Amino acid sequence: MTAISDSGSGPSLASGAVRQCAVLLMHLIRILESQPGNLVDKLDENFRRVPGFGTFTIRKFAANVSEMKKLAARDFEDILQCAIPCFEGLLPEPHDSNVRILLFTLAYWHGLAKLRMHTDSSLALLDTATTALGEALRQFEAVTCPAFTTQESSAEYSKRMRNHARLVTRGLAPAQSAPSGRRPRTFNMKTPKTHFLGDYVANIRATGTTDSGSTQTGEFKHCDIKRRYARTNKKDADEQLVAQDVITSKLNHMADELHDIGVDVPSTRSTVQLIDDEATDPSAVQEHHRIAVEQRNTVYLSQLIADHPDDPALHSFVHDLRTHLHSRLLATDPSWPADAALILDRNCLFAHATARVNFTTYDLRRAQDIIHVGTDKCFVMVHTPGSADGSLYPWTYAQVLGIYHANVLRPGSTSKLRMELLWVRWLERDQTWSSSANDFRLPRVSFLPSTSPDAFGFIDPADVLRASHLIPGFHYGRTFSLLGPSLARNVAGDWRYYYVNRFVDRDIVMRYVGLGVGHLTCRAQTVDKLDVEIVFSACTADPEPPSSPQVGSAESESATDSSMVACPLDEEDETSQDEYSSDEDRLLADLQGDESDASAFEDDL
Questions:
Q1: Which residues form the domain of 229?
Q2: Are residues 318 and 417 in the same domain?
Q3: What is the pTM of this model?
């Protein structure tokens, strides 16, 4: 098995995936705007309710996603990773399923394409996913897009109006040429960057992973030039910029010479010091988790039960707590008296707001998750290798309601043993919802009803694999039937279902795929790969007749490309694909077609 990791050289192909995501998102917004019911507003509301994850992995969507304002590449990535629950139920069938298949396939492909370490097995999966992505894109273009009469979105039309007004103000356009209305817009696959998606596997084999190169150096230099331009008088700015660069170079050279003789010149060099966490505290990344040692927030058990006498979440709190601690003591310390009563120092727990969980990533690095009680970052994956629910994944999901440590007194002694624990509310996998890669669905879970004896419990923090990103199933709404009024429930009720975001980051992607080198047994029991035949059958299923086909839309050929995302041929193209001996010849003929195809390469953005 050959491993390929970032080598520090080679071009980055991420821009192609980002652009494809942006083009797809824009056309989905056009489709939603063509339908009644303020679907775009519902989409924006769903995105605003998506919880964040990690420090910067998934950021809260504060603005309206449909406006697509001030979005960086990372924002489009976040949108793609969280899109499936947000778009669910907004379109009629079969188009809703087609959109789900396309979004899932694109997210699956993107998760593999951005890996920092590849093996022969993962590259084979990426090659198969590229073919599947081509099928899904062609199906979307041939079936879903013609079923809706789409025009410019509100954001696109407003931008065009502003641009025209700016040209009129400058005298570059007559006022009479103002836009009279929204222009028809269609989904365009025939762009170079769409073709380039098929080059990922070959490029990774040749030059390394897609994060081997970066455009940040040039972008930061551009920002520096803009700052210097503000210091000019805007006349003959080029000469002044060169002069500033010469002065800065001379000052830095003088500062270096002074530094060599022991004279420190402040403000000439950055004083920011990079902190290496492993160097400052080597033990921090070696331990599994870390919970603060402070004992300021005391929770007395008798007072807790007295303050919430009717809370269903606390009915067996004390009993479950003592049972959990006693079983752990017997398992870890054979000399502990089995029949001795458990004695808690001061009969209390000490509460904490956060816990940090360290883990080994798929590429043999150490990383950390933060669990924060009372926020969106309170869901965890718990290692349950003996689970009998028929799942391919040896973990279960839980919501952390409290982070505690207790001081346990040994019988006949005054010594105290610190024991850390998490109070959790369990979620169960929906047995009626198949969620493998070939089902094109995210795993769906829901809270156990409060009537179940396993609805709440305690776990050892050492059993936590990672934090988890659960997105509410907005389409199914909330319910009050799972749990009555309780400190463990949101006042607005529980979401009926949650979707597990299996694409939230590279490590989670590889846990579900089952190929993480650093995961050992804590990964999918079998490789969860896309099957090309299943993808093809799902994409070629007989759809419902289009309700309002677009005027002049071209039918897409049903021929498939086995190795890359190929563009469908226009009806007027008389050249048959069978005449080409290879995929490269076919692509070259598409790109060198008649001049009428040149307009097809217009940027949708």
A1: 216-260
A2: yes
A3: 0.79
